[in-house]
Amino acid sequence: MEILPRVVQKCIRHNLDFNVDKFTKAYNIKTYKNGYYPYCNTCIKDMLAQYIKNTGCLVGGFYYLCARLDIPFIKKVWDSIQDNPNHPVTPATVLDLYTKALNNKSLKRPFEIWDDFSCSDALNDVEEAKKSKEQSEQELKDFIFNWGKQESEEDYEFLIYTFNRYAKNVEFVNPQQEDLYRDLCLARLEKRKAEQANAPETDITKIQTRILNIMNKLHLDDFETTKPKSLSEQLIFNKIAMVEQNNSEELYQRQKKYEKESQVRRYIKDLVLRPVLNFVCGNKDYSVDIDDAESYKLDMDKN
Length: 303
Hints:
The protein has helices at residues 41-55, 58-69, 75-82, 94-102, 123-147, 153-166, 175-196, 201-217, 231-252, 259-281; strands spanning 8-11, 16-19. By secondary structure, it is mainly alpha-helical. The protein has three domains: 8-130, no CATH class; 150-217; 234-296, no CATH class. Strands 1-2 form a two-stranded antiparallel sheet. Helix 3 packs across helix 4, helix 7 packs antiparallel against helix 8 (201-217) and helix 9 (231-252) runs antiparallel to helix 10. The N and C termini lie far apart (138 Å).
């Protein structure tokens, strides 16, 4: 019996000869030696995987594979293989399905030329896919820089949502203040995960204590009004509280000769400074009435 000679093809990437069953037929889209693509199936698989990784999608990766193989990427041909439920498009099947579709005469108009990659017509779509991938990668880098490496995309969404909720209408006066808000959001995420994992109550209590400590530093645990106070506003209120706690009682208990001075200062603080504070900060923590002036019993004409 006559033994037929072994048919081989050189893989230009390996620079080695392999049996033709290791290659994919070119289906006459472009004339290659022996009618096969010049890369073995293993090389094509590796190249496609890298292109998909670079672009973030199968269509983008396959587009650059077409450029490598010098075959045209035609949008309507690509769409035709995407719409066939009987032959799903995967990295393993895409080249075979696509090159067969290129020979489908019903898809090609008489005046169209599909000789090589220069006939491709979908560059914008693929570039948009690549741009979207690059944008997503940059966003992920920004998320990691601001929040550290989290387990999932939902974690970043929760952190950003919580940050926007807490920091709404807040003008940061320094980077340390912003960092505290981020620490608060991270602690909230940790508590949420601990509760979902049914962690021991002692662990959840520790996280809650840390949350309360951060809120105290940010003065977010003061519920006098429904309007959140910025740090600068809260500092004003803290100053008032400090004066009332440390100075007022001592001042009001002074000798008789200082009684009028005490009354004047109280009048200025309660009926002048506090209304100005309300106006500047937009708060109503200290409600005063003009009739309250009589309670100070000030008669400036008397000695």
